[in-house]
Write a structure and sequence with these properties.
This protein is an all-alpha fold. The chain has helices spanning about 10-30, 40-45, 50-55, 80-95, 115-145, 150, 155-160, 165-180, 185-200, 200-205, 205-215, 220-245, 245-250, 250-255, 265-275, 280-305, 315-325, 340-345, 350-375, 385-410, 425-430. The two termini are about 20 Å apart.
Length: about 425
């Protein structure tokens, strides 16, 4: 007789998650003080957006994003969506003196910022981000059981979890999918709407979820889902849009005119063709990226439908996000976090996952070594890393993501493993 397989309980998964987050938090500590003049963010690989944005978003002194105007500055201000900006605002209130001043238009002089202020701001944000990670893993576990270890133990989570606030949006996106699978259409829409108010990518997930309801011949469910999502986004955003449309719309204007990011394929193309370290014709690139995204998404859907006509439409969320990442002009380092629950749900192939994680880490270490080496007085974590090495890491990651989409297309659809604590899969086999 064969012994019954051991069940991997949620407690063990959360213990693994705790270890990943603790190590990730410790690795960011050299940068938490804000004392970056010596280039430690490159040498010690501790870079995080959270620390510099405390001052560039002018959060010291109690300024209310959008409602209090930004002081003139060389940096963008109020450049994030509403929920993300107010997560920052809540964290800044926990900084000593962070709830005073700046509430009369934000035009006054900023109070001086100390290392304690930066460290407190980072710790407050990290606490909220960690809470979002725990909710994400619990929700992932509800759908895929021990496959949630794909999230809890991911190197991507360790190095990127505290780089930015993406895990807030990942949490809402994950809850939206779980609510969808439980046939809670309104709640699914609410969570996706909140996610889109934190980062726009959860709004993309409306596409596969609405297609899922329509393929089930449930148009009412699709309508509830769509209106709940749109209504939630409007409720969160409308007060700020009415109070100060110019400040509120900064996020949209900034991204419309933003040049391709270093980590994007568009930047590599621009640099290779023009020989210049920047891209021109930003509006043309933006339109082209939209067309590539739309065309690539339709192609992937058709290929999957021709191979497996009855595949669950909601699983299309995985390749949809991958195509978006590959076609978009911006691929910020932490965007890999978006994919972690989807690996657990729809592509639990340990080979593809390990390859993606390796490439994602390679992009991180070559990116910041190259940045540091641009200044001979600072240097990166290791000397001699060139842009070419960083470029190769990006191209390898892109190739692996294409492999992941092909693997998803070829993979036999599984039943929805909602609330099944022990689904089969490559991780279980390993």
């Amino acid at each position: 007789m064969h012994a019954a397989p051991r069940r991997t309980g949620l407690g063990l998964v959360l213990l693994c998650l705790s270890g990943t987050l603790i190590v990730g938090f410790v690795l960011k500590q050299p940068c938490a003080s804000g004392e970056w003049q010596d280039g430690r963010q490159y040498r010690e690989l501790c870079y995080t957006d959270i620390v510099p944005l405390y001052t560039s978003e002018q959060l010291q002194g109690g300024r209310l994003p959008y409602l209090d105007s930004c002081r003139p500055s060389a940096n963008e201000c109020d450049e994030y969506p509403v929920l993300t900006m107010y997560v920052m605002r809540v964290a800044a209130w926990l900084v000593p003196g962070g709830g005073t001043g700046g509430g009369t238009g934000g035009q006054g002089q900023s109070p001086p910022v100390t290392a304690v202020d930066f460290s407190t701001f980072f710790a407050a944000n990290a606490t909220m981000i960690a809470a979002a990670a725990f909710v994400t893993v619990v929700a992932t576990y509800a759908v895929a059981g021990r496959r949630a270890l794909y999230v809890a133990l991911a190197p991507t989570l360790l190095i990127y979890g505290f780089v930015n606030w993406d895990l807030i949006a990942v949490m809402f996106a994950t809850l939206g999918v779980v609510a969808f699978l439980r046939r809670r259409n309104v709640w699914s829409g609410v969570f996706l709407g909140l996610g889109a108010a934190a980062k726009l990518f959860p709004g993309l997930l409306l596409i596969p979820l609405l297609l899922g309801r329509l393929r089930e011949r449930d148009p009412d469910g699709a309508i509830y889902l769509a209106w709940a999502s749109l209504g939630t986004w409007v409720v969160v955003n409308l007060p700020f849009a009415l109070a100060s449309f110019g400040s509120w719309s900064t996020f949209f204007r900034y991204n419309a005119t933003r040049s391709p990011d270093y980590d994007s394929l568009w930047y590599i193309g621009c640099r290779s063709i023009t020989g210049k370290p920047y891209c021109t014709h930003v509006e043309t690139i933006g339109l082209a990226s939209l067309l590539v995204f739309a065309g690539g998404s339709v192609l992937v859907w058709r290929l999957k439908a021709s191979r497996h006509p009855d595949f669950p439409a909601w699983t299309f969320g995985f390749p949809l996000l991958v195509v978006f990442l590959l076609s978009n002009k911006v691929y910020s380092p932490q965007y890999g976090l978006w994919l972690l629950p989807w690996f657990a749900w729809t592509l639990p192939d340990i080979r593809v996952f390990a390859a993606f994680e390796t490439a994602d880490v390679a992009v991180f270490v070559t990116r910041f070594a190259w940045f540091g080496n641009l200044d001979p007085h600072i240097g990166g974590w290791v000397d001699g890393v060139s842009y070419t090495m960083f470029e190769v890491a990006i191209l390898v990651r892109a190739a692996i993501l294409v492999w992941a989409v092909v693997a998803w297309i070829r993979r036999e659809p599984e039943r929805v493993p909602l609330l099944d604590p022990e689904p089969t899969g490559a991780l279980a086999d390993a």
